Structure prediction request, 137 residues.
Amino acid sequence: MSRKIAAFAIVLIAAMVTASMLHARPSKRFDERTQMCRIINEGRLGWESQPWGLGNQKFQEVCKSCHSRDNDQGAPFLHAKSYVSKGWNRVFARRNMECAENGSWDSLTEEELQIMNDFLFRNAAWTYDPYGAESCG
Prediction:
């Protein structure tokens, strides 16, 4: 009987750890502007929402051109972990940030904005860090 309880406890703990890791790194994102669910961990969006993908590339080209350390525009420093996932979604859904209003985002297509939002949502503060200690086997 005690072996069954121990085996059950091990399975339960393993399931909880696996579930917490799967939940920590978002796999989908609801886009308020299009009212659609975007699966961001598979296929093209899975690739483009990674640090090597189009989302980060556009973030570096467009956003970091002003929001870098010691910039002369007075823009606050930004990086992917500047906001939590829901915070990045609000930025892109409302587009009431000075950057969106002053035309800085005009060089981006709607698809590029969505992919950049996917990247930032997936790599935001409090999400799973693929380079962190918990990813080491």
User: Anything to note?
Assistant: Residues 2-135 form one domain. Residues 91 and 97 are 7 Å apart (CA to CA). The radius of gyration is 19 Å.
